[in-house]
């Protein structure tokens, strides 16, 4: 039922990139195949006589579990290298070799399942993939703190579906099917949520998120940092808009690398960015600005930066405008040095 729901939602999706939809669809198809194979193998295991089909299905099941986990990682992190597949391919090869050799599992002549010398190989490889996935999730720099609850849920659920087979062999496939299907559905919803709150070019939080967070974290916001790229029009005019987009993404990376988890970075306009500092001291804000300038100095681009510490009783807009005034003074100096006096940003 869950897999059918995922399929219907994916069929009507118009928001996500097609490659992500294809990967989710492929993973869902593998889950369906795994489900059918598991139920068939379970039926054969209840028969009194040995069936040659049963060890083949066991090899398929052990292989699919690992490939499903790899596919889930590829959905969440599409840039992962293809060599991530090597352990899964090795596991599948050994599982199918086990049909005649019994090195991973064996089915006796009286139709009883037994583990071979490498009986826990699949669980070990799956554990490595889950550890890799969990570490990668928590190392993603642009993850906001409210997203961690989802990560914790998915981590616990994934570990749960891995250890259940060690204690409940007969019903393990049910737990795996349901857990991974739910994880995929939850992550799909998460992707749609990210689509609504992030800028598609830079992957920073967008203008809508800026206003939402200004209200949500109103009491905790202690400062605002404003950034505006210098010379974007010249880049677009001389090198084209693709070069301009590359520049905007490069600056976004500089801002993200400088900010910590309590300093939320937004793209609020074409070449305009802002950071809401939650609980940061003035020294912390100055340190942030310095890190931003150091990061930008390593690129071929330029950016004007201003900041303002929030006074008691002042609004976020008032604080932003003070930061913007500092930014504008810096920008006037930049263009004055270039011999290009500008009245407007």
User: How many distinct beta strands?
Assistant: 6
Q: Given the helix and strand composition, which structural class is it?
A: alpha+beta
Q: What is the H/E order?
A: HHHHEEHHHHEHHEEHEH
Strand order of the largest sheet: 4-5-3-6
The average pLDDT is 82
Number of helices: 12
Q: Could you describe the largest sheet, including whether it forms a barrel?
A: 4 strands, antiparallel
Strand content: 5-15%
Explain the overall architecture:
This protein has 345 residues and is an alpha+beta fold. The protein contains 12 helices and 6 strands. The strands form 2 sheets. It has a 4-stranded antiparallel sheet with strand order 4-5-3-6, with helices on both faces. It is elongated, with a radius of gyration of 26 Å. The model has no long low-confidence stretch (mean pLDDT 82).
Jot down its keywords:
alpha+beta; 6 strands; two-stranded antiparallel ribbon; 12 helices; 345 residues
In short:
With 345 residues, the chain is of the alpha+beta class. The chain is 63% helix and 10% strand.
Q: How are the SSEs placed, and which strands pair?
A:
Blueprint: H1 2-11, H2 18-45, H3 53-76, H4 86-101, E1 105-107, E2 113-115, H5 121-139, H6 148-167, H7 172-197, H8 207-216, E3 221-230, H9 232-239, H10 241-258, E4 263-267, E5 272-278, H11 282-297, E6 302-309, H12 316-337
Antiparallel strand pairs: 1-2, 3-5, 3-6, 4-5
